[in-house]
Design goal:
The structure holds two protein chains of two kinds. Chain A is mainly alpha-helical. Chain A has a domain of 101 residues. Chain A is 82% helix and 0% strand. In chain A, helix 1 packs antiparallel against helix 2, helix 1 crosses helix 4 and helix 2 crosses helix 6. In chain B, helix 2 packs across helix 5. Chain B has a domain of 110 residues. In chain B, 44% of the residues are buried. Chain B starts with a helix and ends with a helix. Classes of the chains: A mainly alpha, B mainly alpha. Chains A and B meet through helix 1, helix 2, helix 3, helix 4 and helix 6 of A and helix 2, helix 5, helix 6, helix 7 and helix 8 of B. Chain B: It is found in: Cell membrane. Chain B: Belongs to the chromate ion transporter (CHR) (TC 2.A.51) family.
Chain lengths: 173, 182
C-alpha cells in the first residue's frame, strides 16, 4: 500500500515540477509533509540538506530519500521512477509533435506565466524552512553571510553549506 | 548525424557513461548541470553541435521534471530512440540514487549523534540562503514588470494563508501567461 502512495505522490510531484533545481522543494514539502505526513518539518530539513550535499538533481535525491525511508530500496525505486515518468511521457509526446513545442509562442508564454508561481512556491518553502531552522542571531548571521557570498558568486553553494555546517558544530555545543 | 548512425552500436554505452558522469559529479541540480552536460556531449563526445544542444535545452525547460533528466531523455531519444532515452535517464539517475541510499543509511544510523545534529543545524540557514538566491535569480527575470511582483505576492498569500495546493498556483500561472499580451 505504501508503494502505491509513493507512486501517486511522486508522479504528482513530477507533473508539477516546473523550474528545475530547488523549485521542486515546495511540492515535495506539500505532498510529503502536509498531505501524507511522512516526514516532520525537521526531517524535511534534513532531507533538503542531504539532497544538496549529495550529487545529482535535487528532485531525484529527495525522491530517493523519501522512498528509501518509507519502503526501503524498492520504495526508493518506486518514488524515483514515478518522479521520472511524467518527464518520459512528455519527451515521447514532444518527439511525436516536435513542431508544436519548438519555438512555440504559447509554450513560451506559459513558461513565462509560471515564473510568479515558481517564485511564490519557493518563497513559501524558504519561509517555512526559515521558521523552523533559524532560531537565533547566529543563524540569522549565517544566513545573511551565505546569501551574500553565494549571490556574489564568491563561493560554491555546496562549499558554503559544508562551511555553515562546520560553523554549526563549533557554535552549538 | 551520419557519424552517429555508423557507431550506433556504441551509442547506448556512450550515452550511459556520459550521463552517469554528469549525474555523479554535479551538485545542486537544475541549471548547475547545464555547462557540464554541454562539455560532455558537445565538446568531448561530439554527439551534437551547440545549436542542437541549445535547442534541446530550451525544449527541456518547457515541460515539468528535473532539467537534467529532461535533457538526458531528449538527447537519448534523439540519438538512439526510446532505448537511448531510457539508458540516458538511467545513467543520470543511478549515481544520485546510489549515493543517496548510502547517505540516508548513514543519517538513519548516526543522525542522533550530537555532532551530526549540530552540523545540520548550522547548514539550515545556508539552505535558506540558497533558496533565496534561487528565488532572486528567477525574480530578476520575472519582475521586469510590476504585474509579476503583484501576482507573486498574491500567490504567496494564497499558499501561506489559505493553504492552496501548488497545483492551483501553477494552473493559474500558466493561464495568466497565456492570456497576457507580452
Amino acid at each position: 500500500m505504501i508503494y502505491l502512495h509513493l507512486f501517486l505522490a511522486f508522479i504528482r510531484i513530477g507533473f508539477l515540477a516546473f523550474g528545475g533545481g530547488i523549485a521542486v522543494l515546495p511540492l515535495v514539502q506539500k505532498e510529503i509533509v502536509d498531505t501524507y505526513q511522512w516526514l516532520s518539518t525537521a526531517q524535511f530539513l534534513d532531507l533538503v540538506t542531504l539532497s544538496e550535499l549529495t550529487p545529482g538533481p535535487i528532485a531525484i535525491n529527495s525522491a530517493t530519500f523519501v522512498g528509501y525511508k518509507l519502503g526501503g530500496v524498492f520504495g526508493a525505486v518506486i518514488s524515483t521512477g514515478s518522479f521520472c515518468l511524467p518527464s518520459i511521457g512528455f519527451i515521447l509526446l514532444i518527439s511525436k509533435f516536435l513542431s508544436l513545442f519548438e519555438g512555440n509562442e504559447k509554450v513560451q508564454k506559459i513558461m513565462k506565466g509560471l515564473r510568479p508561481s515558481v517564485i511564490a512556491l519557493m518563497s513559501l518553502a524558504g519561509f517555512t524552512i526559515a521558521q523552523n531552522g533559524i532560531m537565533d542571531w547566529f543563524a540569522v548571521g549565517l544566513c545573511v553571510i551565505s546569501f551574500v557570498l553565494v549571490w556574489k558568486k564568491m563561493i560554491d553553494p555546496i562549499m558554503m553549506l559544508i562551511l555553515a555546517g562546520i560553523a554549526g558544530i563549533f557554535y552549538y555545543r | 548525424m551520419d557519424v552517429l548512425i555508423k557507431r550506433k552500436k556504441g551509442i547506448l554505452w556512450i550515452l550511459f557513461v556520459s550521463f552517469f558522469r554528469i549525474g555523479a559529479f554535479t551538485w545542486g541540480g537544475g541549471y548547475a548541470m547545464v555547462p557540464l552536460i554541454q562539455r560532455e556531449l558537445v565538446q568531448k563526445k561530439e554527439l551534437m553541435n551547440d545549436d542542437d544542444f541549445i535547442n534541446i535545452l530550451s525544449i527541456a525547460q518547457s515541460f515539468p521534471g528535473a532539467i537534467a533528466i529532461n535533457t538526458a531523455g531528449l538527447v537519448g531519444n534523439r540519438l538512439a530512440g526510446f532505448r537511448g532515452l531510457l539508458v540516458a535517464i538511467l545513467g543520470s539517475v543511478i549515481p544520485s540514487f546510489t549515493i543517496m541510499i548510502l547517505a540516508a543509511t548513514l543519517l538513519f544510523h548516526y543522525g542522533d549523534l550530537v555532532l551530526v545534529q549540530r552540523f545540520f543545524r548550522g547548514a539550515t540557514p545556508a539552505i535558506v540562503a540558497l533558496i533565496a538566491t534561487g528565488i532572486f535569480s528567477i525574480a530578476k527575470k520575472a519582475f521586469k514588470q510590476r504585474f509579476d511582483l503583484i501576482i507573486s505576492s498574491g500567490f504567496f498569500i494564497f499558499l501561506f494563508l489559505f493553504d492552496f495546493h501548488p497545483f492551483w498556483i501553477i494552473l493559474i500561472g500558466a493561464l495568466t501567461g497565456l492570456v497576457r499580451k507580452s
